[in-house]
Amino acid sequence: MTQMQNQQIIKVNGVDVAYRFDGPQNGRVLLVANSLMANGSMWDWNVPAFADRYRVLRYDKRGHGGTATSPGPYSIAQLADDAIGLLDALQIKQAHFMGLSIGGMIGQQLGARYADRVHSLSICNSASEMPPRSLWEERFEIAKAQGITGLVDGTIKRWFTAPFIERAPGDIEKVRQMILGTDVNGYIACGSAVRDMAQSTMLLKIKTPTLVLSGRHDPACTVDQGTVLHRLIDQSQRVILEDAAHLSNIEQPAAFNQAVRGFIDSVDNTL
């Protein structure tokens, strides 16, 4: 599967954006934002754990999945504006937010710049800066020369621990197909946003209730990078999932779902 199933399309900031809803129509909205080289299907392991109570809104950021690719490079601020633009287009005033990797970077922008639009932030396997630039330039050169195929094996090794890759071939194949479905230009445009990101100072502006979640063995957005988020975001909560790398929501779905659901419920119960 290379795309989110049952997706709909809506125009946001001049781009056709793919999205879908799960859960009760009268539930409070939970907006979820994907990682790089991913689409809304990356949350298939998680949506059922939230959709009994929340109206889960998945979407593909520009350049990914079923959403159109506009000329790059993009910025994280631009991608955050798209997320708000989607809420506006769907006439949603406020939502809980859960984002992983670049999705969590978008969430940092939402908390700092659009505090009145988010009830809570769950920032998962993310960071506020992602140096060095040379790492990104190297990946972009591979993508230009070989396509996404040239990046898929290295990406899977960063996203999951070796034991999980060995024991869950079905999950790994589904993720592989999702990665391979990514548009090269969309990947480079969004990857450039991560390359150019410098958001640590911005974290001091976030007053929204925030959960910072990391995977113990994540080589992409490390525990240390998560600790920076936790220390700079006022009164944030911290969870570290053991036996998980970058896509902790797929490698440890039960622990991930329990941690994030418990946090969102704790905030939602006060609204």
Helix content: 40-55%
Arithmetic mean pLDDT: 97
CATH superfamily: Alpha/Beta hydrolase fold, catalytic domain
Helix-strand pattern: EEEEHEHEHHHHHEHEHH
CATH-defined architecture: 3-Layer(aba) Sandwich
C-alpha Rg (nearest Å): 17 Å
Number of helices: 10
Percent strand equals 15-25%
Shape: globular
How would you describe this structure in keywords?
17% strand, alpha/beta, 10 helices, Rossmann fold, 41% helix, 8-stranded mixed beta sheet, 271 residues, 8 strands
Write the layout of secondary structure elements.
Layout: E1 8-12, E2 15-22, E3 29-33, E4 55-59, H1 76-89, E5 95-100, H2 102-113, E6 118-124, H3 133-146, H4 149-159, H5 162-167, H6 169-180, H7 184-195, E7 210-215, H8 223-232, E8 237-241, H9 248-251, H10 253-268
Parallel strand pairs: 3-4, 3-5, 5-6, 6-7, 7-8
Antiparallel strand pairs: 1-2, 2-4
Helix pairs in contact: 1-2, 3-7, 4-6
Question: What would your notes on this structure say?
Answer:
This protein has 271 residues and is α/β, with parallel strands linked by helices. The protein has one domain: Rossmann fold (3-Layer(aba) Sandwich), CATH 3.40.50.1820. 41% of the residues lie in helices and 17% in strands. It contains 10 helices and 8 strands. Strands 1-2-4-3-5-6-7-8 form an 8-stranded mixed beta sheet, with helices on both faces. The mean pLDDT is 97.
